[in-house]
Design a protein that fits this description.
Elements: H1 55-59, H2 69-73, H3 85-88, H4 92-107
This protein binds zinc ion (ZN).
């Protein structure tokens, strides 16, 4: 359905290397063999990422209502904080609506401002 078109901006490199160095060089070159024996990490992700597609876009939810607490709870951390967009993958437009809905829900005490212990 959704096609991703990644377009890269062409980077123009301006390579201007003008090196004019006149220095008495008493060369003491120590040749070290750079032994690179690093263990290559392969795919150890600490945070689990879902697919980076906005949930509301996929389900075509236009209006996020503040009464939909079960929906809003998915984007609120345990202590009541709103989960940032980079973690949830919600697009900007929906994140704004979501934030508004969460704040409205807070005002009528559907969601907590911050969890109390
Ligand atoms: Zn969206």
């Amino acid at each position: 359905m959704a096609e991703e078109t990644t377009q890269r901006a062409p980077e123009s490199r301006a390579s201007s290397s003008s090196s004019s160095s006149s220095s008495n060089s008493s060369s003491s070159s120590s040749s070290r063999s750079h032994s690179s024996s690093r263990p290559s990490r392969s795919g150890g992700r600490k945070f689990f990422r879902r697919k980076k597609v906005c949930k509301f876009c996929t389900e075509k939810i236009d209006v996020i209502s503040y009464r939909d607490v079960n929906l809003l709870r998915q984007f609120v951390a345990e202590r009541g904080k709103i989960v940032p967009r980079r973690l949830t993958g919600v697009c900007t437009t929906h994140q704004r609506r979501l934030t508004r809905a969460i704040k409205q829900a807070r005002n009528i005490a559907l969601l907590p401002f911050a969890a109390r212990y």
